[in-house]
Amino acid sequence: PTMAHSKALLVLENFIGGKFIPCSSYIDSYNPSTGDVYCRVPDSGKEEVEAAVKAAKDAFPIWSSKSPMERSQILNKLADLIEHDLEAFAQAESKDQGKTITFARTVDIPRAVHNFRFFASSILHHITECTEMPTMGCVHYTSRTPVGVAGLISPWNLPLYLLTWKIAPAIACGNTVVAKPSEMTSVTAWMMCKLLEEAGVPPGVVNVVFGTGAKAGEALVCHPDVPLISFTGSTLTAQRITEKSAPHCKRLSLELGGKNPAIIFDDADLSQCIPTTVRSSFANQGEICLCTSRIFVQRGIYSEFLKRFVAEAKKWKTGNPSDPTISVGALISKEHLEKVRNYVKKAQAEGARVLCGEGVDPLALPPGNQKGYFMLPTVIADVKDESCCMQEEIFGPVTCVVAFDTEEEVIRRANGVKYGLAATVWSSNVGRVHRVAHRLQSGLVWTNCWLVRDLNLPFGGMKASGIGREGAKDSYEFFTEVKTITIKH
Ligand code: NAD
């Protein structure tokens, strides 16, 4: 780009030791709804990560010795500041990620605010264990201390939401952090850095290094002074992180992909099930790790379900994300859009039926969005269980619907993938709901609802969907070291 052009771009800087620091090289970041480069993101590497880890290490003694109450007040202040700027954060998240402004306003940014408030509160309520051995004259108790510098790596689908879900518990527990957001969605993390000083977060407690996974991410994972890594992203990247961190025996929390089933029995309340399952399939363009992508419908209601489900899906309008009447925004990138479209082509080639969306219905876009990465919500029926569309994470607005006969059969088929993150079960038979939930290989099971979360409880996946859990108690345990102390009296 020419100088004049590059001047118009938003240029981000790393945030290290409480200061914004320019980088020697940058990568382009696109606005997914127009296809234009609009922002330049530092292309950090070893050197920048080294500086950030040093700043975090230097800040650790003071931050870790503050009381939970002092840290809690700072987290609450940060929550207030983000909330005060909610609209600006929502606009930035929508522009950077392609998600609708409505979703950013009602889900992403409110949840980022809540993440800080939640851990500001929960950090005050932990208790440790104590046991007695009267015959030995001993008492035992446990104590927990922060670990040190935490490396936090987050994906592009829910940028500030998922990054703050890691920063909040890490610093509430007294750790200092080096965070690396996705290179495709870095803007809201950079905006948050501007509020840290006013919130009272001391320099070096939160450092943010922008850049790619291969360069900045790996430098963080390989750094000997970063004993724990909390990662949310794909299973493939998690394998690489596990390999690279193995020589240092790092503590890892891995929140990964899913291939989440919805199981719909013939006694389900379809008036609730259908709109909720459309939402669980297409919310945030299907780019949520918890989105439904395999819908098993009991044979007796299969054709009625398909008809009503497709009619409901067609109500979801695709278009300019800043238009509040739009439900489906742009996908994250051109490459990702191609990948998602290819899955639909493969399903068609295998003989499945595409009932609406990609390749079937016309997609009309406003003039300014012609080069954006848009796709209609797509429903595919009669896909074979072994098809890649039923096995692999698509991570786009595509959902597959198939029929089943018995409870036993559907449990086996729902469990027949490598992932195990989330499942939904729809039935009015309470016994069946419990039986099925119990046998699903899935870290989360929602019955007769979707995405209702109590942050106190464990969040995370089984099998290829992850290792470890996050939540009030789980994050506290991950971000602290426990010690057992015995006293003889
Ligand atoms: P990704 O794995 O490509 O990237 C995630 C992050 O890891 C990015 O910041 C990236 O730069 C970084 N990274 C990439 N390679 C790295 C390496 N070698 N070393 C260190 N860091 C590296 O994932 P994505 O495409 O950004 O996100 C989509 C994926 O995230 C999907 O699979 C989705 O299911 C998953 N996800 C899971 C959850 C969950 O809570 N389980 C939540 C959201 C998204």
Care to describe what's here?
It is a single chain. The protein is of the alpha/beta class and 489 residues long. It has two domains: 10-257 and 465-488, Aldehyde Dehydrogenase, Chain A, domain 1; 260-447, 3-Layer(aba) Sandwich (Aldehyde Dehydrogenase, Chain A, domain 2). The protein is built from 16 helices and 23 strands. It has helices spanning 3-8, 46-65, 68-84, 86-97, 101-122, 159-172, 187-199, 213-222, 235-245, 270-282, 302-313, 334-349, 388-391, 407-414, 430-439, 472-478, and strands at 10-11, 14-16, 19-21, 26-31, 36-42, 130-133, 138-146, 149-153, 176-180, 206-208, 228-232, 251-255, 260-264, 292-298, 353-356, 378-381, 398-404, 419-420, 422-426, 444-447, 462-463, 466-467, 480-488. The strands form six sheets. It has a seven-stranded mixed sheet, sandwiched between helices. The chain has a six-stranded mixed sheet with strand order 10-9-8-11-12-22, with helices on both faces. Helix 10 (270-282) links the parallel strand 13 and strand 14 (292-298). The longest helix has 22 residues, at 101-122. It is globular. The mean pLDDT is 97.
Per-chain topology:
Layout lengths: L2 H6 L1 E2 L2 E3 L2 E3 L4 E6 L4 E7 L3 H20 L2 H17 L1 H12 L3 H22 L7 E4 L4 E9 L2 E5 L5 H14 L3 E5 L6 H13 L6 E3 L4 H10 L5 E5 L2 H11 L5 E5 L4 E5 L5 H13 L9 E7 L3 H12 L20 H16 L3 E4 L21 E4 L6 H4 L6 E7 L2 H8 L4 E2 L1 E5 L3 H10 L4 E4 L14 E2 L2 E2 L4 H7 L1 E9 L1
Parallel strand pairs: 1-5, 8-9, 8-11, 9-10, 11-12, 13-14, 13-19, 14-17, 16-17, 19-20
Antiparallel strand pairs: 2-3, 4-5, 6-7, 7-23, 12-22, 15-16, 18-21
Bound molecules: nicotinamide-adenine-dinucleotide.
The site of nicotinamide-adenine-dinucleotide (NAD) has 31 residues, from helix 8 and helix 9.
